[in-house]
Design a protein that fits this description.
The protein has 2 domains: 5-65, Arc Repressor Mutant, subunit A (Orthogonal Bundle), CATH 1.10.10; 79-254, Rossmann fold, CATH 3.40.50.1360. The strands form 4 sheets. It has a 7-stranded parallel beta sheet with strand order 6-5-4-9-12-14-15. Strands 1-3-2 form a 3-stranded antiparallel beta sheet. The protein starts with a helix and ends in a 7-residue tail after the last strand. Helix 2 packs across helix 3 (38-50). With 261 residues, it is α/β, with parallel strands linked by helices. The chain contains 8 helices and 15 strands. Helices cover 36% and strands 23% of the residues.
Length: 261
């Protein structure tokens, strides 16, 4: 049976994205992740090698990196992030008070909120550069400003957050696994993330592209039991997605946007 060109291109794009994250992968691992045969993967890798995108070795392949390719992947990942943020914004309702942490994906929600009279509380100083509706109120937690993320952390931020509650929270993460839960690479952000989860009276949304799902980092912000819903993309590790659903966690997977609106 002839396979459509779009299916082949989509699979090869997934292979490149996985290589971008792992630098090198085995044929059998790709076949398992993409639910296809090792023979098909070998053909894909051979085609990608002819395009000077990968270098094959016995049993696997590695990514050939160059500046143009890095820009291509960066642009593609931005489309993933916007798609996730756009989906998350659908859950913001009129009159909601929401927490947003230092995640770049979570902050993009501000571009897509259509609900009225929304109050946003965030420790992300970059919020001042976001597109904000006239009837939206944005409060910064204050605190010690840390670069390059321009996050606000420390006792001052914690003290301010401990005095408020939100109806929903939208938090990004560096990693998410069943075993470790929500993790981050920045120690100072764990206390803020944990407090936002605990001070939320309603649904708790975790946002993360496929690179974050199934990965773990050094510092734990919360267990998966704290999560109401994960919003990720269609390239997320399906094994992890299925295990989360078995734990009664809603998982929404979105396609990357074709362009930023």
């Amino acid at each position: 049976m002839k396979v459509s060109r779009s299916i082949v291109d989509n699979r090869r794009t997934k292979i490149l994205e996985m290589l971008r994250h792992h630098e090198s992968v085995k044929v059998n691992e790709l076949a398992e992740q993409l639910n296809t045969s090792p023979l098909t993967i070998r053909r894909d890798l051979e085609a990608l090698e002819k395009e000077n995108l990968v270098m094959r070795f016995h049993g696997g392949a590695s990514l050939i990196k160059d500046e143009g390719q890095e820009n291509m992947f960066s642009s593609n990942l931005t489309l993933h992030k916007h798609a996730i943020a756009k989906e998350a914004a659908k859950f913001v309702e009129d009159g909601d008070t929401i927490f947003i942490n230092t995640s770049s994906t979570a902050l993009l929600i501000l571009n897509y909120i259509t609900a009225k009279q929304v109050t946003v509380i965030t420790n992300n100083a970059k919020a001042i550069f976001s597109k904000i509706r006239e009837d939206m109120m944005v409060f910064l937690t204050g605190g010690e400003l840390r670069f390059p993320k321009e996050s606000m952390v420390g006792d001052f931020a914690i003290n301010n957050l401990s005095r408020v509650k939100a109806s929903k929270c939208f938090l990004g993460c560096s990693g998410l696994t069943i075993e470790e839960g929500i993790t981050t690479a920045v120690l100072q952000e764990t206390a803020i993330n944990e407090l936002m989860l605990n001070r939320t009276t309603g649904e708790r949304f975790i946002l993360g592209d496929y690179q974050k799902i199934g990965r773990t980092h050094s510092f734990v912000s919360g267990s998966i039991d704290k999560i109401s819903c994960l919003i990720t993309d269609i390239y997320a590790d399906q094994n992890v997605v299925n295990r989360l659903r078995e734990r009664n966690i809603e998982v929404i997977q979105v396609k990357p946007l074709k362009r930023i609106e």
